[in-house]
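Homework-ish question, so no full write-ups if that breaks the rules, but can someone show me the predicted structure for this set?
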Amino acid sequence: NAGVTQTPKFQVLKTGQSMTLQCAQDMNHEYMSWYRQDPGMGLRLIHYSVGAGITDQGEVPNGYNVSRSTTEDFPLRLLSAAPSQTSVYFCASRPRGLRPTNEKLFFGSGTQLSVL
Amino acid sequence: ELKVEQNPLFLSMQEGKNYTIYCNYSTTSDRLYWYRQDPGKSLESLFVLLSNGAVKQEGRLMASLDTKARLSTLHITAAVHDLSATYFCAVDPLRGSQGNLIFGKGTKLSVKP
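A: Not a homework solution, just the prediction itself:
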């Protein structure tokens, strides 16, 4: 059981380039989300999805696009990279439902992105 | 807007000492989470607190939730070096299955011999 898999682990971009951060989970979780982590800022929600075909914006969505064509995959696209997007990006998932065992968010290992 | 505030943000402790990390949040919620992050690593779930008065313990860590005071605490007993990490609390502001969590800025704990 691989859990939540993110690729790549490291990426360097030039300003204006585009790229896609990949996230896949094999736990059949309906909910998936993307966070960015910056020093002293904690984790901030970028976009999230509660199921295939359904996405919504989080706290800091500007400059990012997402889509959810399958339950397993939730890619994050940077349309035109900017230095302000230099950050560590985490993908997370969890099942829907209210049982205590379903409440935990499972995190991927992160992608460290530098935009020059 | 829901705000989640942790304090302290930095904590340097000696081994064997006790200390408490505080997590205050600004709106009604009965779900609070604690995570641990080691440098360069992902987040590991420590505790899920789902009701007022909930208390959970694992090893030298104990977490509690007071929903009336909108406060959670993470108590460290007889700290050891292995507990050095950054600890985050997070609140689910929406009851139900949206699943979004709002995180505090984290408390960086350093346990020194």
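Now go work out the reasoning yourself. Hint: Residues 61 and 106 of chain B are 16 Å apart (CA to CA).
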